[in-house]
Design goal:
homodimer, alpha+beta, Thiol Ester Dehydrase, Chain A, five-stranded antiparallel beta sheet, 23% helix, 33% strand, elongated
């Protein structure tokens, strides 16, 4: 398991890839984002997008899956206070394969809580045409080594 | 249908409420955020959260659902370029009822594209104890009135 101290500024983690199907796009959007260009392939053709596109929250959640498996579940994660920025740069369409990366931008021990600290990271998904489709700047809290109050056995 | 011109700075839209179940929290997290405090009620008890909490992307997607129904599907929406900020302020737990609001912060016609413009808005979900659990600052594009290239029949 990784602790705050194990994250190095400039490190880039390869998160692997995920392919999104039309059925998954429709299923997510029916539950969470029922706009015509997300839930209705026919209506979507008449919009500025010219066809069905994934909800931006779906795209973000696909990044989250890769980051949970590739980074957070390999570390003593204490969850996230939030995101500084989310940019949806290109539409995500049925059949797209998205490749994820996570770059460590900043590592900051907490001033008030010696058992933890924050990693500021840049997450991106890139499609099979080499286009970045989403860019996320996130803050995540991690336990510091040898600090039993937050780390180790308590998680 | 509402156009850009119909959004007034300071307007607050009541988005109604949604209740989230343990099964929904588990289902979302197994797909998109398989961290122990999101997918495993037993393991979650041993974490800093003391029990199962919803993925932050799930909470954001619940806000999205309310905003799609209450705002975007009532307007000629041209989707969103991104979010400026997402803050997860309190954990969301099974059985929580979340009430949504959307406040118009800024309305800006596009300088380069006369058929559209941007609304900058503040979205919040508040739980049954009156605690704001998520705060989102979003940008959304909308068509302007009487501008056939983006608006009206094309969407």
């Amino acid at each position: 398991m990784r602790y705050l101290e194990d994250f190095q500024v400039g490190e880039v983690v390869d998160l692997g890839s995920v392919t999104v199907t039309e059925e998954e796009i429709l299923d997510f959007a029916r539950r969470f984002d029922p706009q015509p260009f997300h839930v209705d392939p026919e209506a979507a053709r008449g919009t500025i997008f010219g066809g069905l596109i994934a909800s931006g929250w779906h795209t973000g959640s696909l990044f989250m899956r890769l980051a949970a498996i590739g980074v957070l579940n390999q570390a003593v994660s204490l969850a996230s206070p939030g995101l500084e920025e989310v940019r949806w740069l290109k539409p995500v369409r049925p059949g797209d394969t998205l490749h994820g990366t996570y770059e460590v931008l900043e590592v900051t021990p907490s001033a008030s809580r010696p058992d933890r600290g924050t990693v500021r990271g840049l997450g991106e998904l890139t499609n099979q045409r080499g286009e970045v489709v989403i860019r996320i700047i996130a803050r995540n809290h991690f336990a510091r080594r040898n600090q039993p109050s937050a780390g180790g056995g308590t998680l």
